């Protein structure tokens, strides 16, 4: 049993919540600001064709995940049929007024070392929680791989820490095994963030570890996005989405395959990072996260430890 509230309570919340303004729209649905009993929440309304993502995300929250400060907080899910062909699929979560990490990086010209460190560590901590199996007497969760890690699926909380969202594609590992429990969901990850082994179709879909390594590749890209906005000696780079100058705005699978797998390109590590001890150490971590060979990538836990020691060493 995961961290979900009782079903009847979820229904009550969904029936009583008032929808306010739209705070985001995407291919798979729209997100609204909502109010329930005086408090702010976010309501994700899924497109009816994407019922399987709603089902999977709801299942992940209710059955598999445990609440964690770096995972978007879950309140309720609801499904209502207006008529035979009109099904409404809702997911109600905590609301974060800063919006996504992508919005946050676009809206801020620069971030300080302190802010960047919080964004980095908290994002990595969220992935560590997902990837880790917990087998306690009272707390139990399987290892989960996200499969669509990107800056638009990470939210920035008002304390400056991140939390991970969108579990519509997540896969779950069998307890103490290697087998994978799949969603019956045809949705694919975001092409721009796809790892080389996904792009060249060589990924071993039968082994759960493969999916953790795919997450780590995408995590490397997200870490790069954060570091780009990190100001050193008054210099900062404008925000760029990964591969901004290398592919079209909505790249095709073939285009990404060519750039990432055939040409083995990665986003550029700015020269100015080499002049900063901490940033150059983090660049080395990023380089091992988005490694061409999945087996050579660091684990989330190792990234957290390396980041922590790079930050502790700083100024010694
Ligand atoms: N955009 C998508 N999900 C959100 C959330 N939970 N809070 C704020 N903005 C969001």
From TrEMBL:
Location in or out of the cell: Membrane
Annotated GO molecular function terms are: ATP binding; transmembrane receptor protein serine/threonine kinase activity
Instruction: Report the record's Gene Ontology biological process terms.
Output: cellular response to growth factor stimulus
Cite the EC number.
2.7.11.30
Q: How does it sit in the membrane?
A: Single-pass type I membrane protein
Main localisation: membrane
- What are the GO cellular component annotations? BMP receptor complex
| Entry annotated with the keyword Transferase | yes
Q: Which residues bind ATP?
A: 44
This protein's UniProt keywords: ATP-binding, Kinase, Membrane, Nucleotide-binding, Receptor, Serine/threonine-protein kinase, Signal, Transferase, Transmembrane, Transmembrane helix
The keyword Transmembrane helix appears for this protein: yes
Domain named Protein kinase: which ranges? 17-311
Q: Which family does it belong to?
A: Belongs to the protein kinase superfamily. TKL Ser/Thr protein kinase family. TGFB receptor subfamily.
Q: What is this protein called?
A: receptor protein serine/threonine kinase
Coverage span on the entire protein: 210 to 525 of 528
């Amino acid at each position: 049993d995961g961290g979900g509230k009782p079903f009847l309570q979820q229904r009550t919340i969904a029936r009583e919540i008032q929808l306010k303004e739209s705070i985001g729209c995407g291919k798979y649905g729209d997100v609204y600001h909502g109010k329930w009993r005086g408090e702010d929440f976010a309501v994700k309304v899924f497109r009816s064709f994407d019922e399987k993502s709603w089902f999977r995300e709801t299942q992940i929250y209710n059955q598999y995940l445990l609440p964690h400060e770096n995972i978007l907080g879950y309140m309720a899910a609801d499904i209502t049929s207006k008529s035979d062909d009109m099904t409404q699929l809702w997911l109600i979560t905590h609301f974060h007024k800063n919006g996504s990490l992508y919005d946050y990086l676009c809206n801020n010209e620069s971030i300080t070392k302190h802010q960047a460190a919080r964004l980095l560590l908290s994002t990595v901590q969220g992935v560590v929680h997902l990837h880790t199996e917990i087998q306690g007497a009272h707390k139990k969760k399987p290892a989960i791989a996200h499969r669509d890690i990107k800056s638009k699926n990470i939210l920035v909380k008002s304390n400056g820490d991140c939390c991970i969202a969108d579990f519509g594609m997540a896969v779950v590992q069998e307890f103490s095994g290697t087998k994978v429990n799949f969603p019956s969901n045809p949705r694919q990850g975001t092409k721009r963030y796809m790892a080389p082994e996904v792009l060249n179709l060589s990924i071993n879909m039968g082994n759960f570890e493969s999916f953790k390594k795919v997450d780590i590749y995408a995590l490397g890209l997200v870490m790069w996005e954060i570091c780009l906005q990190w100001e050193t000696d008054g210099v900062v780079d404008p925000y760029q989405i990964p591969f901004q100058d290398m592919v079209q705005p909505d790249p095709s699978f073939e285009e990404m395959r060519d750039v990432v797998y055939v040409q083995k390109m990665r986003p550029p590590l700015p020269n100015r990072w080499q002049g900063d001890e901490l940033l150059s150490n983090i660049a080395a971590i990023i380089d091992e996260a988005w490694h061409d060979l999945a087996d050579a990538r660091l684990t989330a836990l190792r990234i957290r430890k390396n980041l922590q020691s790079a930050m502790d060493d700083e100024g010694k």
